[in-house]
Amino acid sequence: MRRKVTVIGAGNVGANTAQKIAQKELADVVLVDVVEGVPQGKGLDMLESAPVEGYDVRIVGSNGYDETSDSDLVVITAGFPRKPGMSRDDLLMANYEVVKSATEQAVRQSPNAILVLVTNPLDAMCWTAMTVSGFPRERVIGMAGVLDTARFRTFIAEELGVSFENVTAVVLGGHGDTMVPLVRLTNVSGIPLTELADQATIDRLVQRTRDGGAEIVKYLKTGSAYYAPAASTTEMVESILKDKNKVLPCAAYLQGEYGIEGVFVGVPVKLGARGIEKIFEVKLESGEQAALRKSADAVRELIDVIKKSSGAAGQHA
User: Fold this and answer.
1) pTM across the whole model
2) Which of 4, 42, 175, 210 is catalytic?
3) Does residue 175 carry a catalytic annotation?
4) Fewer Cβ in 10 A, N or C end of the chain?
5) Lowest mean pLDDT: which of 34-43, 70-79, 131-140, 295-304?
6) Does residue 47 lie within any of the structural domains?
7) Which residues form the domain of 54?
8) Which CATH number does the domain housing residue 55 bear?
9) How many domains does the chain have?
10) What is the DSSP letter of 113?
11) What is the reported pLDDT for 313?
């Protein structure tokens, strides 16, 4: 039987994710959006590229959720994008309502699906989806670390004039200003970054990574990044559907790992057929641990705002 992926949100991130999933022939795709005609039109346009691109999967667009039934995986990209001068946190309650509704409707049709969240503020939206769905933590995963790490790798490769493929890095923490690029574990074909660049350069690259999304928003003015987020999401989808067990930095619900309890934070995880197969605990130095805790505290503050404003349920096993 063919696999099925539902992508909720037919904007730039969702549409590009749907297209990449189709091009890789990972699954049939259902593209869902509230705007009448948009998912249908984009879905048909993608389908008509199949003879040229050479892929054989079905892509359909819908304003409802009936077509999404029995999806193996649901990607939630729906929400309001950031505008210049707007923080991810400004989006909080507006996107809470969007993600809550999308999750409720999607899991009703696909109770065994794995949820991949892309909507910002990412870590708080993951908590929302898990609370609403009642799914175990293995089946609710946030896409942020893959994107943040890709940005860090890009800036390092550009700075040093080396292949992007040669740069290995990992970015932990929340998706925002408190993210934690682990410079100590960053290398170029095994050569530590600290031997290839001075501290001032490294600090500049780390800061640019933290500002990566805002930098693109500043250029676009009326939108936010979508090519790299779609590519990052598709890498996660592929690892799950193909049971590749890739180790990727993703937002996961921690239950004591890294000394953190009850929030989603970006950490290295093994992604396979069951979703999160394993959470890896990297031994952190005291400064890194403090930065990760600070990041987790920032996420917890957002969750507290949601609880207070919406009366949402709290602890989830």
Assistant:
1) 0.94
2) 175
3) yes
4) N
5) 295-304
6) yes
7) 4-142
8) 3.40.50.720
9) 1
10) P
11) 57
